[in-house]
Each structure stands twice: as C-alpha cells, then as structure tokens.
Amino acid sequence: MKRSWQISAVDDAARARIAVARVAAAYGVAPLDRTRLSAALSARLRRCLTKGGLWRLGLTAAGGSLHVEVAASAAGDEPPWRFTAPCPEPAAAPVTDPVAGDVTALSEALLGADEDTALVLDRLAEQEELVAFHREELHQTNQGVLALHADLDAAGRAQREAFAAERAARREAEDARRRLTFLADASAALTASLNHEEIVRRLPELLVPEYARTVDVWLFDAEDERGTSAPRPAAAVIAARTGRPQYAAARPGGLPGVDDLPASALHPSRPLLCVPLPTRRAPLGVLTLTPPGERWNPDDAVMLVELTRRAGGALDNARRFEHNRDIAETLQRALLTELPAGAGLRLAARYLPATYGLNIGGDWYDAFRQPDGSLITVVGDVTGHGLHAAVMMSQLRTALRAYAVDGGSPGELLTRLHTFLHHLQPDLYATAVIARFRPGEPVLTWAAAGHPPPVLRGPDGRVHTLDAKPGAMLGIPLHQEIADHTAPLEPGSTLALYTDGLVERRAQGIDPGIDRLAAALGTFRAEELDADLDGAAERILEPMLSDSERDDDVCLLLCHIDSHIDTRVGGHAGTQVGGQVDGHAGTQVDDRTAGRVGSRVGDARGGT
C-alpha cells in the first residue's frame, strides 16, 4: 500500500498527520508506536512548515512495517526524513502490565485527540472561509459606507453652498426690487407735478433718511435770480462743468460711473456724492448728497444717479410747461375784450384760467356791436389746451368779428365760422354760442354749435334752459347750416352764457352742473341783478366751483336787461354800469393778478 500527500500549509500537515495515524491504527500498529509516530511526524511537519515551501509526505506498508517519509518536492540539500513503525500481529490477550496499560490509554487518548483536532481543524477551515467571506463583505460594506459618507458630505456642502447662494440671490433680488419700486414711485412723484419748486421740495422728502442723510439742490438760474452765490463743494462745481457724477471722500468709493475726488474742504468728514441734473442741452443744477451711513452701496449709487437723471427731466419739463403756460395765459389775457354796454343792458364776465396742468388757452368770451346797432355776445371753447389753443382762439375771435361786420344772424355767423375753421385747421374743433340783442326787439336770437345751452332767467325768477337743438361742433368735416333760435326777452331777464369748465364734472357729467347753475341764477332778485350784476356773477362762481379741481378754463358771461326800462330794448346811452356812468364800457373781470387765481373764487377778479 502506498499513499502520499502534498503539504504547504498547516491544514495540509494536520490532515496528513491524522490520515497517517488512522492508517497506522488500521494496520495494527501498537498504540505506543502510533503515538511515537504521531509525535515525531508532528515535530517534523512543524519544521517543514517553518522552512516553507512544498513538501511531500509518503506512506508505505510492506514487510510488517509502516514506512513514513517526508521530503521536499524540489531537490535540495536536506535529506528526506523517514520513520518506520512495526506492524505486529494483534496480541492474543490483553496486556496486564499497569504501566503498559497507562501508556496504551494515553496513546488512545492522544489518537482520539488527533481525531477531534482534525474535526476541529475542518470546522476551523470552514469558519475561516466564512470569516474571510464576512471580512471581505464587511470590508466592502465599510468601503461603501465611507463612500456614502463622502457623497453625503459632498452633497451637504453643495446643498449648503446652494442655500447660501439662493439666500444671497434672494437678498439681491429683494434689494433690486426695493430699489426699482422706490425708483418707480419716486419718478411718479416727481413727474406728477409741473411746478419746479414743488419738485425741488419733494427730492429731500423722497431720499432722506433711507438713501441720504442730507440733500442739497443747486439750481443755477435760481441762484442767479436771488443774486447770491453760496460756497459750493469743488465736487459739485466739477460735476456742473463736466456733466459727470463726482464722489468726494478720503477714500475712493468705487461707485459705477462716478469719478473719485479727494475729500471736500467744506465737508472734510463726510463723503459727498454730487450728481448733475441733466437736460437736453446742459445741466440745470447739481444734486449733492451725503450717505445715510459710512458710504453708499454701489447699487444704491447707481439708483441715485438714475433718479437724479429723471429729476432733471422732470424739472426741465416743469420749466418748459411754466414757460408755455405763461405765454398762453399772457396771450389769453391780452385778448380779453372790453365789454360794451347799451341802454338798459348790463354785462358782467368772469374768466378763470385753469390751475391744473397746461389746460389754459381754449375758452373765450366776447361782446361787440354790429353796424345795425345789435349787440353780439359770444362764449366759445377751442378743443385742446396750451399756446396752440390760445392762438386758434384769437383767430376765431378775429374771424367772428370780421364776419359780424357784414351783418348776419347768430346762426349765419356760426356757419361761416364753421367753414373757416374747417379749412384753416381740419384737425381742430371748437364750440360756441352766440346771442344777439337788437334794439327795439324784445326777442333774444341765439345759436349754438356743440356748446352747453344758455340759461335764461325771467323777470319772475323762473329759470329756463334754452335747449333747442344746437348745431354740431365747429370745424368737423360736415357741411352744416346752423339754425337760429329765439326766446322772449322781457325787462329784468338775465341770460347766462358759459363754458363747460363751469358746469361739467368728470364723475357727474354736465347736466347736474347746468341744473346747479340754473338754481344759483334763480336765487337772485331782480333788484340785486339791477344793482350789482358783477357781484351776482361772483356769487354764482363761488358755489359752482367749490367742488372743482379747475383743470379747465372757466368763462361766464351774464347779460341782464334792466327791469326799470320799457319793454323795448334800447333808449339812451349812459346807463350806470358797475357804479359808474359809461356809455360804452361794461364790466369785465379777467383775473389778471396771477397770485389771486388760486386763492378763492371770490378773489379772482380784475378791473372794469
């Protein structure tokens, strides 16, 4: 019998040793010899394992002996190790020697231990493989956990950075929205006014204290008007000369679009931001600001420069408006007529220019005589406002007087005026009402073209609206023949001609205003109108305009027939008008004093 084993590790050595012990037992090797064989083989195998390498264990049973040989698989200097154990026949009787019995028991115990050891080694090998598998699995799990932690840390950092960036972006967006909202509101507040002094007053109110501690507005022409020259910071002078914003401070501000300068000698401890107020031609002033804190945020500085640019435009528009308004009002007042008067006929007029916006210039009144002695009274309103409307009004007034020289009824005069306006200004329209008082006729002849109806007060105090169908507006692209209308005219009667600025309100329309005018005219007694027609006109205006914003001109012309004359309109000249005897001059109030226009209606009067 021959057997061999390859040994390279402890497991191989243990299995081979156990196998040799079993074979020895199977071949009847005595227990003591088996023990010696196992001990010697174990020692030799330990040496082999210590040296390392691959070893071969051979087992041969022949000639009543068991031969064991351990040699290196590769040829070397060390000779092979050999051990021989006899294989005697089994004993016929049990051994009774006590020493031999103890040795036999020990050998049996050792052999049993070797078998148990082999089992344990098998189990240990299995457990080692399981442990190695779990160790590798644990290692892979640890690597995965570490990688997961690294990913979580990276994700956490990225999330924190994203949150920080989002918060910063939200703050920037909120700041930008706040600045844009302020810029829009401030621009609306500045452009809402057409008074440059009001704009200058609003600028500090808008900027202090959120965006500036102090605000100084330097207007060049205003300083020239006062005749005084206050000392100005060098930065403000440079901004006025160059047209570029300047920042004067001990340290550069780094503000976008702003030049840096040394600290101001007038204000060395405070930074100054000097921004010119630009216009289409040249700066009209400089806005000088000091910061609310240590310095300005660059974005706030950009917003302030833009607001100053818009303020410059608003100031320029306001001054242009005031200039045009002054021209239009001067032209309008220059065209206000002297009111004539006839025997027993009194006239009183009121003209109040608009106090809101550039709305002056379109309304007018007039009164003059025709060659046959008839008195023509007219009130008109040109569409549009401003200087252009005032010029067109003067042309219509002149044309109407020229047409009236050739005679003609009120309807004929309006028809001619309609044709004239249509050919002169096709895109301009007007409304007008003409009333004619003819001596010797107790009849009023009137005609209207798109104008509010006249209001006639009878001698008994009853008031009628002359609402016969009027013609269309003057100047529209329509051929029309404007008809005349008549109404009885008795002594003590009063006719009121007016423009829509007196009676029309946006929220109510025009009809309630006409009713209020009729009611106000009906409150007077004939004696009051005879004695003081001028005062009656004043007392009519005051309640009528108490709820008005005066965004349009107002004209009122009262024509009163003296109640103490005969039914025939005429008679002698020299009737007392307004407290003086004047054969040709009536009462005229045109509000020439500009400072008295906006105080109260009762003060808005001129001369006779």
Topology:
Layout (H helix, E strand, L loop, with lengths): L1 E6 L2 H17 L4 H21 L3 E8 L2 E8 L8 E6 L11 H94 L4 H12 L6 E6 H7 L7 H9 L3 E3 L10 E3 L10 E6 L7 E6 L7 H37 L10 E8 L10 E7 L5 E8 L4 H19 L4 H15 L5 E8 L5 E7 L5 E3 L5 E3 L19 E4 L5 E5 L1 H4 L7 H12 L3 H6 L1 H12 L9 E8 L14 E2 L2 E2 L5 E3 L19
Parallel strand pairs: 6-7, 10-22
Antiparallel strand pairs: 1-2, 2-3, 3-4, 5-9, 6-8, 8-9, 10-19, 11-12, 12-13, 13-14, 14-17, 15-16, 15-18, 18-19, 20-21
Report what the structure shows.
- The protein has 608 residues and is α+β, with helices and mostly antiparallel strands.
- The chain is built from 13 helices and 22 strands.
- It has helices at residues 10-26, 31-51, 98-191, 196-207, 220-226, 234-242, 298-334, 387-405, 410-424, 500-503, 511-522, 526-531, 533-544; strands spanning 2-7, 55-62, 65-72, 81-86, 214-219, 246-248, 259-261, 272-277, 285-290, 345-352, 363-369, 375-382, 430-437, 443-449, 455-457, 463-465, 485-488, 494-498, 554-561, 576-577, 580-581, 587-589.
- The strands form 5 sheets. It has a 6-stranded mixed beta sheet with strand order 16-15-18-19-10-22. It has a 5-stranded mixed beta sheet with strand order 5-9-8-6-7, with helices on both faces.
- A hairpin with a 5-residue loop joins β15 (455-457) and β16.
- α1 (10-26) packs antiparallel against α2 and α7 packs parallel to α8.
- The longest helix is centred in the first third of the chain and has 94 residues, at 98-191.
- The relative contact order is 0.07.
- Mean pLDDT is 81; it is low at 90-101 and 567-608.
